[in-house]
Amino acid sequence: MLIAQFSDLHIRLPGQLAYRQVDTAAMLRKAVEHLMQLSPRPDALLITGDLVDFGTSEEYAYLATLLAPVTMPIYALPGNHDGREAFRAAFGARGYLPRDGFLQFALDLGPLRLIGLDTLVEGQGGGALCEDRLAWLEATLREAMEMPTLLALHHPPFATGIAHMDRIGLEGAQAFAAIVERHAQIEAIVCGHVHRVISTTLSGRRALIAPSVAHQVALDLNPDGPDCFVLEPPGYYLHHWDGARLVTHTAFIGDFAGPYPFRDAQGRLID
Fold first, then answer.
1. Percent of the chain, pLDDT > 70?
2. Can you give the residue range of the structural domain that contains 104?
3. CA angle 126, 132, 133 (to 5 degrees)
4. Which of 45, 53, 193, 208 is closest to 119 using CA atoms?
5. In CATH, what number is assigned to the domain containing residue 92?
6. Are the beta carbons of 196 and 209 closer than 8 angstroms?
7. pTM of the predicted model, to two decimals?
């Protein structure tokens, strides 16, 4: 089982640039092209929030045209830039989302279970897992306690040290961590929101933040660091379940030199 993870697409209307600088649509086109050239091709594409910039139906319609070349199933969950009902209308026909309420889902993808959480608080940058959302997570995890599970949400349930992003973090993170601790089947927790490759542990599980397929948040660990972005190489994750463990790779998007061989035609290392 191979799952690709895109995050933080921030698609705006055609011709508009994010923050007057970033052509997020062009960057998503390149990400999709990169994805569809992979061999082996992933079994599914997970998108961990902030699919569009203002949560409008028009943005989601444009997003649909940009994602049209993707041939594998797409499972997306909302971030703070998304609009819940416009999101539901855009992705509801894919059959994995509930018809009302929070946009949470659980799917058995062959040998691996995927659980997606809705941390959206509309109108706010920060996210939340309220009692209802946490109760749903607990009950859903109890349904399949022996099945390896990948848990996905937009807002990371831990502080990163990037202060301006931590200020719009996740309410309910402590209660979430307590649930994770009770469920050994969770292989990893994957997030977005911070637009950087970041990893830690939470309740003994790996917790990973994916890079953006567009712009990245500047790496500044000063407590008063400004909220800035940089145009470092975009990327995405590839989560490979080999039957025993989940291994995560970072795929960088861009035109880079190589690949070059390590060995010559006789199989000798090139010195």
1. 100
2. 2-252
3. 50
4. 193
5. 3.60.21.10
6. yes
7. 0.97
